[in-house]
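Page 47, continued from p. 46.
Same chain as before, 274 aa.
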Amino acid sequence: MKAAVVQINSGADRSRNIGKAGSLVAAAADEGAELVVLPEKWSLLGDGAALAEGAESSEGEAVTAARGWARDLGISLLAGSFTETSEDGLPTNTSVLISPDGGIAAEYRKLHMFDVEAGGVRYRESEHEQAGGEIATGDAGDLKIGLTICYDLRFPELFRALLDRGVNAFTVPSAFTSATGRDHWEPLLRARAIENQAFVLAANQTGEADPSYDSWGHSMIVGPWGEVLAEAGEGEGFACADLDLAEVEDVRRRLPAVEHRRAEIFREGIVNGS
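Result:
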């Protein structure tokens, strides 16, 4: 299977963002991509107030457009993430996996809120979004995908939980900052691929956006041995790579770290050997 990660410089202009995303998705499909991954907040990126005002349901403009692209192009599409309205309080940061027929194969709401200081900027996602409470997987051809979003990348226990559900690939739509990305982006992506012996498809935002976003770009696809198979660098565009699922089986056979896990030692309630 050929896969692509799309890199966009999204901002407050929803129409421009959606138009650009659609053209890049189509270009990736023209190069043979059967699975395309969009970045976090691809349809609208802004401050908390702008995101709240622009929140929409899965029946809204962003997901409707993405479902149409998937159906028209006959591809699987990970529609990055969008700000989804909630019937219970704050909106959620939601990722949607769409099947080639335009149907929704999986939905995931970001578990870990980005409440940090990076590059002199204070981020407090929990002030305008609520965390999800469930992990999610979905199928795209022979890929069984574990869904994550951006800051989730720093929590290997999420990836292990998804691994236990049989995944052989992870999607990481992101708006990873330049302040952290230059040192952490590639090492973390490669680590998640190596320790789980699975593909990692990470589509990142790039460039500056109001009020203080500065995204690292460098979207990439990483193989189960930890090698970078494709990278988008800086600027808007996409990167493609062929995913050989036999490689996952081969790596897990030759270096059976997944099989050698001692999960019983780390179960909840087992502390200091008691």
